[in-house]
Amino acid sequence: MSITRDEVAHLARLSRLALGEEELDHFAVQLDAIVSAVARVQEVAAEDIPPTTHALPITNVFRPDEVQPTLSSAEALSGAPAAEDERFRVPRILEEED
After folding, report:
1. Where is this region: Disordered (predicted)?
2. Do 77 and 86 form a contact (C-beta atoms < 8 A)?
3. How many domains does the chain have?
4. What CATH number should be reported for the domain holding residue 35?
5. Contact 85, 77 (CB under 8 A)
6. How far apart are CA 83 and CA 72, in angstroms?
7. Residues in the chain where the model's pLDDT stays below 50
8. ∠ CA 26-30-36 to the nearest 5 degrees?
């Protein structure tokens, strides 16, 4: 199948694109190459090969979601430069609105 200059002009009209004479010739060559490449890919695709999302099998690499011991407030705050009311104290960056 070959894309002709007239077909490109027709597509340009449908798309409301104003293309010059050189552009019509240029796009006809490009679109013909694209359609030919897609046709080659369709020839290769075999029906006996199931569709996949990844080339290799994927397994879950996350650890199990299990309850584990955590730090106490004192342990978590032990390395903090400043703490207040069992929380990290950080500099204010927003002004309060009245």
Report:
1. 70-98
2. yes
3. 1
4. 1.10.20
5. no
6. 14
7. none
8. 150
- Whether residue 65 lies inside any domain: the answer is no
Full domain range(s) for residue 23:
5-44
Give residue 1's pLDDT: 67
Structure-block tokens of residue 96? 């309060």
Q: Give the C-alpha separation, 49 to 40, whole Å.
A: 17
What is the pLDDT of the chain when averaged over all its residues? 88
DSSP H helices in the chain: 5-14, 21-44, 73-77
Beta bridge partners of 87: 84
As a whole number of angstroms, the distance between CA 16 and CA 6 comes to 15
Half-sphere exposure of 83 (CA within 13 A, CB side): 11
